[in-house]
Amino acid sequence: MVSLTTRAGFDGNSGKLPPVQRRILLLITDLRIGGTPTVVRELAVRLHGDPDFHVHVACLDRWGPVADQLRNGGVPVTTLNACCSVDPRVLAKLVWLIRQEEIDTVFSFLIHANAVAALASLVLPGVRFLQSIQTTQPNPPWHWRLQNVIQHAAEKIVVPSPSVQDAAIRWAGVTPAKLVIIPNAVRIQDFPSERRGGEGQRVAFIGRLDPIKRIGDLVAAVSLLNANFTLDIWGEGSRRGEIQSTINRLGLQDRAILHGAVAGSAQALEKADVLVLPSDAEGFGLVLIEAMAAGVPVIGTNVPGIRDVIEDGISGLLVPARNPRALANAIVRVLSDAPLREKLIAGGRDRVRRLYDWAICYDKYRQLLLGPR
Predict the structure, then answer these.
(1) Which residues contact 38 (CB under 8 A, 6 or more apart)?
(2) Would you say 185 and 358 are in contact if contact means Cβ atoms under 8 Å apart?
(3) Which one of 199, 217, 252, 273 is separated from 111 by 20 to 30 angstroms, measured CA to CA?
């Protein structure tokens, strides 16, 4: 049994030892800029400031920008420096780290981290293991087959939305009783209460440049609009070259700009008039609630994950996937109809305040991580 570490000293009033701290390891595949690394960062920072927890973050990959952010926030970070997707040395490093830090709970995020943690559980019987699934993508199918095998190592599996819950049940065979829905969250105070928005025609996308995001559909949508509409694309990923080629082919070099990665969404949202997420599927779509909190109206495709976050016509607009014309029409509708725009902004902020504020969601994580005493 891995020992638990107590806070130093005695309680001066009662003469008893203070409560035992939970020693938590948050394990993720990488710490590059992205939705899940952002969730891990924000959770780690809150655990770090909570006297009931000691937190450590580890990633399978090498050092990334989010690791810098964690370190700057005082959170200890370890990179396991995997040389490939299957690196047997990573398991040994992880087991050593868990024992060295006297970790009692490992909470892993994404399939590769879940798999390595599940292997570690075989030699660490006294440690609690929790997993997180953050996607509704059906492909590659082997991810779900693997998740079906490794889910048995987890006491609970956290998902951010009902859509991910359904995917985990359907494709990984996870029993409903094992699943816990904790939405992604933002800190509302990080965004201004008043914002001048919707006066221009600047469309924004923020996220990894991956195939599932269908960014080419958004570029095609902007090509259908008049020359006053511009597109700011923030993020990096495997499809950058392909997206730039599409921009060049459509003659949009002066209207659609690839800005690269951005450390925080607030910077990218400052000048945005509407945020569009044209994905084929999402686990949640953290950028949607970031935009809502920032007072930027949102448009998303009517697909799993996104439709859990956007109430069509109330907190944003939903359009059919893979339909540039529908995206273009929705963009024009939002930016030309001031009453609708203000309704969506107010509805988005209200939804974030009620459901997606860290003040609400952190308590759910806290209760899960405290676990049985």
Answers:
(1) 66, 286
(2) yes
(3) 217
Which own/partner contact pairs does 306-315 have at CB distance under 8 Å and 24+ positions apart? 306/277, 306/279, 306/282, 307/163, 308/161, 308/162, 308/163, 308/284, 309/161, 309/284, 309/285, 309/351, 311/347, 311/351, 313/344, 314/343, 314/344, 314/347, 314/351, 315/344, 315/347, 315/348, 315/350, 315/351
Rounded Cα distance between 353 and 346, Å, is 11
Summarised one tens digit per residue, pLDDT across range 226-261 is: 999 999 999 999 999 999 999 999 999 999 999 999
| For residue 87, pLDDT beyond 90 | no
321 within 8 A of 198, measured Cβ to Cβ: no
CB atoms within 10 A of CB 54: 21
Nearest residue to 304 via CA among 168, 136, 170:
136
Q: What is the pTM of this model?
A: 0.90
Token code pair at residue 347: 């509805």
Q: Residue 116 corresponds to which tokens in the numbers above?
A: 């390595």
Q: Give the residues across from 26 on adjacent strands.
A: 57, 107
Instruction: Give pLDDT tens digits for 25-41.
Output: 999 999 998 899 999 99
The three-class DSSP label of residue 85 is: coil
41 to 32, 59, 86, 112, 285: CA distances (angstroms): 11, 12, 25, 18, 16
Domains located in the chain, CATH noted: 22-185+358-370 (3.40.50.2000), 188-355 (3.40.50.2000)
Token pair 């392909």: residue: 242
Beta bridge partners of 301: 319
| pLDDT tens string 49-58 | 999 999 999 9
d(CA 186, CA 288): 10
Say how far apart CA 232 and CA 204 lie, in whole Å.
5
Secondary structure of residue 107 in the 3-state scheme: strand
